[in-house]
Amino acid sequence: MAIPLDEGAQDRRRVGPFWLEEGTAGVLLGGAILAAFLVLFLLAVAFRPV
Asked: What is the CA radius of gyration of the chain?
């Protein structure tokens, strides 16, 4: 029997097409880490020696 995409385990959250098994805090932490790397990369590009 196929399980419809709109149904899942009760302890999981769905945001758009994604199931969040780690919880919202894990997703926010991952986003913060990616944002920090993006800022560091942009600073490195902006202040590179010419």
From this structure: 18
Question: For residues 5 and 19, what is the distance between their CA atoms, to the nearest angstrom?
Answer: 10
Whole-prediction pTM value?
A: 0.58
User: What stretches of the chain show up as alpha helix (H) in DSSP?
Assistant: 24-46
Cβ pair 6, 17 in contact under 8 A? no
Task: Please report, for residues 5, 13, 33, 38, the alpha-carbon distance to residue 17 in angstroms, rounded to integers and kept in the order given.
Answer: 8, 10, 22, 25
In the chain, which residues have pLDDT < 50? none
Distance CA 10, CA 5 (A): 14
